[in-house]
Amino acid sequence: MIIDTHAHYDDEAFEQDRDILLGGFPEQGIEKVINSGASVASSREGLRLSQRWPSVYCALGVHPNELAALTDEILEEFQLLSAEPKVVAIGEIGLEYHYEEPPREIQALWFRKQIALAKRVGLPIIVHSRDAVQDTLDIIRETGAAEVGGVIHCFSAGPEIAECYVRLGFYLGIGGVVSFKNGKKLKEVVREMPLERLLLETDSPYLSPEPHRGKRNSSLNLPYVAAEIAALKDISPEEVIRQTHENALRCFPKLKN
Ligand code: NI
């Protein structure tokens, strides 16, 4: 059975059919899904979804472009909520230099504060990093985030950086991009990194794999991602699904709840 380690089912793209989709996952081979927080509101909504649907778990965290609503009081709220059985991680948190709003210093400040929160509550982190390869790695090293570990979501750097994260004990989140014709760098990463360090993820509703590229994504598309990883590593899709399932439970121990 498949575990989708990164999706956004609170997104309005699922307004019409969210209940049918989430309720139907177990029969369709999707065992568990982590709804990743992106804003303050989506973190709270993700928690509600996890309380309603047995297969849904959640992460609490604020994406670097959504920091305007974040305060120390809200991080205290997240700290209390993180004791809930289905809160499995702090995320998604990190650096987004493609859109530098707010400025880099502010992004770094809240990235560090949210890593500190993860260490306080003993939960792994889900890291968003775009056009910020070196700064992300530096902050992860300086803060000792490896103590709690986690995943570099939608991994987009090359094999050398991948290797740094694997050595630190982190996992690499692999989604639809691996199936794209222009996903050469990610294909190389998948070929070279150990299967034991890869996680399946969708980032739904974004980043649908081929042959559904450009359409709304959902966890139901993960077999295409597993098949692509299998082809790159010359193993069976079943082996990819079995091993990434084990990896997800190792990375996010509370998924066993
Ligand atoms: Ni995301």
Looking at this protein, list some descriptive labels.
8-stranded parallel sheet; 257 residues; 9 helices; 8 strands; binds nickel (II) ion; alpha/beta; globular
Structure write-up:
By secondary structure, the chain is α/β, with parallel strands linked by helices. Helices cover 40% and strands 17% of the residues. It has helices at residues 18-24, 40-52, 72-81, 104-121, 133-142, 159-168, 184-192, 222-233, 237-251; strands spanning 2-7, 30-35, 56-60, 87-96, 125-130, 150-152, 171-174, 198-200. Helix 8 crosses helix 9. The mean pLDDT is 97. Residues 6, 8, 36, 92, 203 line the site of nickel (II) ion.
Report, as a whole number of angstroms, the end-to-end distance: 16 Å
Overall shape: it is globular
Structural class: alpha/beta
The major pleated sheet works out as: 8 strands, parallel
Q: Can you count the helices?
A: 9
Number of beta strands: 8
Assembly context of the chains? single chain
Q: Topology as H/E string? A: EHEHEHEHEHEHEHEHH
Provide the β-strand percentage band: 15-25%
What number is the mean pLDDT? 97
Q: Classify the helix fraction into a percent range.
A: 40-55%
Identify low-pLDDT runs. none
**Radius of gyration over all CA atoms, rounded:** 17 Å
Spatial order of the strands forming the largest sheet: 1-2-3-4-5-6-7-8
- Bound heterogens, unique: nickel (II) ion
Please outline the helices and strands:
Layout: E1 2-7, H1 18-24, E2 30-35, H2 40-52, E3 56-60, H3 72-81, E4 87-96, H4 104-121, E5 125-130, H5 133-142, E6 150-152, H6 159-168, E7 171-174, H7 184-192, E8 198-200, H8 222-233, H9 237-251
Parallel strand pairs: 1-2, 2-3, 3-4, 4-5, 5-6, 6-7, 7-8
Helix pairs in contact: 8-9
This protein binds nickel (II) ion.
